[in-house]
Amino acid sequence: MPLKKELGQHLLVAKGVLSKIVEFISPQESDLLVEIGPGTGNLTKEVLKYPFKELHLIEIDPQMIERLREEIKDSRVFIHQADASKFDLCSLGENLKVFGNLPYNVASLIVENTVFHHRCVPVAIYMLQKEVAQKLQKGAGWLSAFLQTFYSVEYLMSLPARFFMPPPKVQSGLIRLKRKKEVPELDLKEYKRFLTSLYALKRKALKNKLSESLLLEAGIDPMARVESLSVEKVLLLYNTWQKARGEQR
Ligand code: SAH
After folding, report:
1. What would the pLDDT profile of 31-53 be if each residue is shown by its tens digit?
2. Where are the domains of the chain?
3. How far apart are CA 96 and CA 27, in angstroms?
4. Probe ligand 1: pick from 101, 108, 111, 126, max atoms within 8 Å of CB?
5. 240 lines ligand 1 (CB under 6 A)
6. Minimum-distance ligand 1 atom for the alpha carbon of 165
7. CA 100 to centroid of ligand 1, rounded, Å
8. What tens digit of pLDDT does each residue of 121-170 get?
9. Scanning 40, 218, 220, 228, which has the fewest C-beta atoms within 10 Å of its C-beta?
10. Whether domain 5-179 has CATH 3.40.50.150
């Protein structure tokens, strides 16, 4: 079957790596699993060797779907033809373990969608482009901050391009997201809007984006750049900003 580049179709073919990833997923009898972008089912078939309750596959390509339906005959598996960057994960259950060798062109959108559904996703294990994986773990950016507000991010391993068919132009990295014990109750859309404008023009001093009095109230140097703030500080800043807005009304 010809693979579609525009859908980020780079199949993981290295057996050793596939079983290593499944060890990280570590499926348990009671697990509700969700795989994003199963493709031809290389990773899926490794997972099927384990006990679990349900496995939901979310794949956008009708040809891949057809093939999965032909090849996977397991009553625990449910196949959904859908866009994983928009999929309502919480419609599948309340305690999901999500994983996938993600299509790299929309990987950020899939991570963002995961955060929007953090209430029902305590754990996710994703393969993405190495630089993106590293940035999500320790870099400064709106999505890193958005993600780290709700999840701790572990970098598990790097993978060279030769483990994929066809090999992508970039290296890959595997990360694990673990939801934090205490997550703030936030209006996620508003928080996202706040973060995207806060992280725009990263090199500018914060006083160009927010009032000095607000920054001082949050205990932040108005001359500081957003890149230097911890996630805790960013969240504090958001709460301070929100409170000030509430008082203005
Ligand atoms: N997991 C497989 C394939 C990974 S390639 C393996 O490791 O071998 C990425 C897969 O994601 C492809 O099958 C592609 O069709 C699918 N895909 C691309 N965009 C998608 C989207 N928006 N939602 C769901 N699946 C998508």
Report:
1. 999 999 999 999 999 999 999 99
2. 5-179, 188-248
3. 11
4. 101
5. no
6. 8
7. 8
8. 999 999 999 999 999 999 889 999 999 999 999 999 999 999 999 999 99
9. 228
10. yes
